[in-house]
């Protein structure tokens, strides 16, 4: 039997290793920026073309490399920071050249120019597919310039898996922001396709946060710091009222290295418990400084995951630090010790629906049933001066229901169109009449059906209706627009600006009209025709936020995601008192949908209670 086990060629082994470290252009950005930081650079330029697919170049003014180091950094297992096993557990640097460079050189064309300080000339290297094509002296400034061109040119299968330029650029921006937040003392610039995206001068952390995320963050941050001897926690947390639906703006750094940790995130979220809604996520940028021997940073090839020797202590300190920060800035709720709760006067309990604790019907002020008068259509409370309602007044509560049976017969005999198609109308879920919807707490609609009673979730129904409407607009590209009387200027974060430009065609198909104003600013000129013209800027920001939230949890195409996001955000604005006409229209539109029973996310829009179920509620045990 012939031997079948053999050693892989170096170029193939490098390509396999690259699969762990270099997954997309953003991976190259991360490695090159970290190398420049370890080279003690104070000024770093990142130049990107075609979202990094064509070019990722990092130019720094660091210490540079000698000719030997320049050549060695592209060899497998080359490193500048590990000499012994113990060094694996004392890592504080990011990775000075070496290591990832061999992986990058295996899947791209790399040009390296470097000159150490006080040297007269530098070194130029050209690498293609792990092979050194050229090595020669060159005149170049002190520091290092590394240009990574045509990523995955020799691995077409990997290149085909890259996303659109807008998506890949969003990942590049995320990596750039992570590094920029960790090192505010370093000047950083980013250019994409010869356009300046970021120009961040050296400053302090708070100013760096504002420079990256916008001036709106000036009044949204609370300083956090705790020094226990075991570790130091410092940074900024966002005020609860500014929490968002997505968790994108949450950053944890351990020894200045960005890490992802659900455990640490949970520590922060529990500190915010009771201050933010469960589905919202507060902003934070927190740094933990701890003895490197107390952690293991090598549990993942990209070093974005971490293990702590004493996780419970770290959790408790982080939680306490954030809690203290919220309390110090009077963000957390506090007790009023000046009020004597034992002798506080008791206020009469008022039941929603217009009755007080003694069951006295409120007087009708003349408004309609949908405008804040009696909660029961057609019912006028009796004029009485006594505190207790008479039995005759109570009987009138049920008078609107006496006509239900008669109206149902008239409705069935009528030749007019119903709520549903003939096939659906024959079912027990079909509403008996469009005139019997009753709104409860501005959240639910009650509708009589043949088999009992239907309860419709007002917001969920609106979400289903809007979703199908906007999906149709996106598919047919027929979204109508209404022009704003006063166009609004919307300043976005860099990542949101890229996202909106990526979705420009889809936004237009839905009815949005905007134009690029330069940088990360757009001018909003129009919104979908049927959207109420109010808080248009806020609506656009909410829509982008919901889109990102969907992207983080679901795998959807752009149109599906955008339609869901639009429906979700608009439906949340529709919780209000409705007229009879509006209620009937909502029910009609819901049952005209292809899937009336559920929202796009799977939540029920309606529940049927059978007569037998209602009967059982009143039976004695």
Write the layout of secondary structure elements.
Blueprint: H1 10-21, H2 25-38, E1 43-49, E2 55-60, H3 67-72, H4 100-106, E3 109-115, E4 122-128, E5 131-138, E6 143-149, H5 156-160, H6 165-182, E7 187-192, E8 195-200, H7 205-213, E9 221-227, E10 231-238, E11 250-254, E12 257-259, H8 262-271, E13 284-290, E14 295-296, E15 307-308, H9 311-328, E16 350-351, E17 355-356, H10 391-395, H11 399-402, H12 404-413, H13 422-425, E18 438-440, E19 444-449, E20 452-457, H14 458-476, E21 481-491, H15 494-502, H16 504-510, E22 513-516, E23 521-528, H17 536-553, H18 558-571, H19 580-591, E24 606-610, H20 611-617
Parallel strand pairs: 1-7, 11-13
Antiparallel strand pairs: 1-2, 2-6, 3-4, 3-6, 4-5, 7-8, 9-10, 10-13, 11-12, 14-15, 16-17, 18-19, 19-20, 20-24, 21-23, 22-23
Helix pairs in contact: 1-4, 2-6, 6-7, 6-15, 8-9, 14-18, 14-19, 17-18
Q: What's the story with the biggest beta sheet?
A: 8 strands, mixed
The portion of residues assigned to helices is 25-40%
Mean pLDDT: 78
How big is the Rg? 32 Å
Would you count the extended β strands for me?
24
CATH architecture of the largest domain: 2-Layer Sandwich
CATH uppermost class of the largest domain? Alpha Beta
Count of domains: 4
Question: What is the terminal separation in angstroms?
Answer: 81 Å
Question: How much strand?
Answer: 15-25%
Residue ranges: pLDDT <50 for 5 or more in a row?
A: 334-428
Overall form: globular
Question: What is the CATH superfamily of the largest domain?
Answer: MutL, C-terminal domain, regulatory subdomain
